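FAQ: What does a multi-protein file look like?

Like this. Sequence, then tokens, then the next protein.
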Amino acid sequence: MQPLPETKMPSGSKIERRSSVEREPKTLTTQELQCAREAAIQILRTNTLEEAVRIFMEGRKPVLRPGQRERTVAPAEALDDVLLPVNRKRSHPLLSRAKYNVSSPF
């Protein structure tokens, strides 16, 4: 698909036009998704929960809507948001034996 032509504004600035398809997020194929799931399972099997969460959170960037300002969050604070609910679950005797479903966010 070819990009739409640029339109010149009277002041000399350009507006780059793109089709809506070009703005859509990229998706994974079924094979890529299965590979990501297997990699996630391997990480969970070979690391502690805290290490696995750090691996999964590494390089994560917020998704912003048009016009939304970027919010800065300290890495430790972001990690606590994920780990605290898990640690609370483990502190309850009945939930400490619960099995976790393994799924990949990608």
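And here is the next protein:
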Amino acid sequence: MSDEQQNLAEKQSELETIQPTESDENELEPENGEENLDSERLRPILECLLFSTIQPLSIKQIAGIVDNADGKSLRKAMIDLQIEYEQSNRGLQIVEMAGGYQMATRPQYAPHVMKLNKKRRNPLSLPALETLAIIAYKQPIIRADIEAVRGVDSSGVLQTLADLELIKIVGRKDVIGRPPMYGTTEEFLKVFGLKRISDLPSIKELREQFEKSEESQRNQGKKESEVDAE
């Protein structure tokens, strides 16, 4: 079963078992007493909202925007929209991440998007990405342990990541000096398209993805060279 088929099956199963939550029944009920909008009328509204923002939208946020829709109706419509996107084989998908929903491109089309954006600079340096990876996989972690892995001073990199709101101090270690412990933030989840920190790929999966990315870039380079030669 492909990833797309598995995702579709999971969404259909979730749709069958969806139940109203306390939030659905209390905070998210329409205040005007009118009948809820059905999924067919809600889906285009949700699609427009997701298209219009770069931040994940939660069901509660959407309920504050859309009249005549409670949490259960919105959640069902959102899952219906996800299934619709899966079944129509579009280049976009509706993903759940960082406590909300967001419209995103599909991973298999990343090489084309990378070509479009190849002149854009990555705001994170290699040391910053390395430090962020250490924190993500070993959090909560203190600076001394980060530097033990990297072998160099990391104070500047930590400040950069904190300024970008990708990491934060999540506590203090119970040792002499009580050094701060670092962890990732909700912004980190948004940037990397994760629903929760447990969705991080394993080291093996990361290595496989890296190898595929390198191979894709090599093939793309060959194609560009052939085009230039013509």
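Q: Is there any per-entry metadata?
A: Some entries carry free-text notes. For the entry above: Confidence is low (pLDDT under 50) at residues 19-28.
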